[in-house]
Amino acid sequence: MKRIEIRKKEFKKKLEELLKKVFETAIGSLITVGYSYTDGTLYVVEGTDVFDNPENEFSEGAMFYDGSTIFFVGVIKSKKHAKKLAKRVTGDFTGLFGEGYLVISVALTDAMDEAEIVVTDEESKTKKTRSGSVWNSGIRVLKSNSFSIEVPEKIFKVCRKLAQEFAGVEFSILCKATREGDVFRISEEFFIPEQEVTSGKVEFKNKAEMNGWNCIIHKHPSGLRSFSSTDDETINGNNDVSILFCDGEFVTAVANIKISEHEKIQIEVQQERIKIVDEQEIQVEGIERIKRKSYPQYSGKLGSYVGYEYAPDWREVIKNGKS
Predict the structure, then answer these.
(1) Class in CATH terms, 144-292
(2) β-pairing, 303-306 with 215-219?
(3) Alpha helices per DSSP H over the chain
(4) Which among 27, 118, 124, 306 is placed 20 to 30 Å from 286, CA to CA?
(5) What is the pLDDT of residues 23-66, one digit of tens each?
(6) What is the value of pTM for the model shown?
(7) Any idea where the domains of the chain sit in the sequence?
(8) 169 vs 221: CA distance, rounded Å
(9) What is the pLDDT of residues 88-139, one digit of tens each?
């Protein structure tokens, strides 16, 4: 196996150059480029077993398939295409796995068979592979169940105050979230978008004012302690962090981590890993922007009625003499 040493700060540049040379040898051929979790190898092979139909190309972003992350399936059309693809695959790979020890396996005519890329970094400790060679990974592995969310006490009190004012209905507020490793930190800064709310829906009146915020805290009526399918399709897919508030506490959350231009990994954060930090008294600004949706009401000899979004107009019910 060919051994290539690369300084950590040059990893992306050298990997891109190496892939460019490999891809140029495959011009005109159908190839698959992927990363195998089983043996930690970035592989380039002729043909594909990912799709039943070889004509079906997968050429943008990364996807997961049978223990691998697939970066590209398709035909290398030219040197320009090879250069462009090398740059994208390098970016996708380093975005997913960082910059560290790597084995590249190439099964192409006139290309190297295999190379061991060793990243040198004087500040890092060295490890030994099973074969005994010394290498430096430089990669921090983040497990899905290690992620946590830190919410300022101020934001918790805002949610609790709003829940007291708007019991029995939903509402949402916006914050800003930053990620440091496996910790998402929520800002004390928040914004209440203009919205009309019911027991089962939040209707935002001006979605443009939601730009610039990447965290949403969504409140459910008592007992509804999980995100709805509508939540999953809307707010959970369009924010970096979505937190559910119910029964006076944060009960669950999801976080999205971008792995390529077109792909995100969604992680569920359990209640015990949502932590409240800091402590201070707060004033809720913008509370007037949440308005209860009004419905037809009747009060008379037959009693008092309040209509709902899914119910008939009670004025028509009384008029027709039905109950």
Answers:
(1) alpha beta
(2) unpaired
(3) 11-24, 79-97, 153-165, 229-233, 235-238, 314-319
(4) 306
(5) 888 888 888 888 776 666 788 887 765 544 444 455 555 565 55
(6) 0.50
(7) 2-135, 144-292
(8) 5
(9) 988 888 777 666 556 677 776 555 455 555 555 444 444 444 444 444 444 5
